[in-house]
């Protein structure tokens, strides 16, 4: 596996990774009907826009197999979007790897690359938000040194509640 910057040509594949990973990861946490309604074609404009015109300081890296160039995962990151974070904080916005590639080390590679980029950009710490009940993700983050800092939030933007916990990591 290797890491490279995501390009506009990756938009359709990243939309597929995004949707398929959501469907696998969040089964049991969000309504099945919502998961079934997720459509990579509807996510393509989001990814096309994000990759064509990234917000200042943000980036998306793709995880690709050694024998190919079709991404099987991605990480997006940049300055923290969280009102409760200080200006020295970067944020991991999303990290997703297709379920058939879980346990291969790709997620760790993506995280390491993103954290290096955030530290190189001058951020002293990083934050991320994780679904409170997502034990698999929480174990992954905690194995990498991340710790919950006590902040929580409820996201009801999709018509059902998602309780999230903020994790932090010192980059110094």
UniProtKB/TrEMBL annotation:
Residue stretches making up the N-acetyltransferase domain: 1-172
Alphabetical list of Gene3D superfamilies matching this protein: 3.40.630.30
InterPro entries named in the record: Acyl_CoA_acyltransferase (IPR016181), Bact_Acetyltransf (IPR050832), GNAT_dom (IPR000182)
A Pfam family per the record: Acetyltransf_1
Molecular function GO labels: acyltransferase activity, transferring groups other than amino-acyl groups
The keyword Heme is assigned to this record: no
Keyword terms: Acyltransferase, Transferase
PANTHER family: ACETYLTRANSFERASE, AMINOALKYLPHOSPHONATE N-ACETYLTRANSFERASE-RELATED-RELATED
Protein name: GNAT superfamily N-acetyltransferase
Species the sequence originates in: Catenuloplanes atrovinosus
Taxonomic path: Bacteria, Bacillati, Actinomycetota, Actinomycetes, Micromonosporales
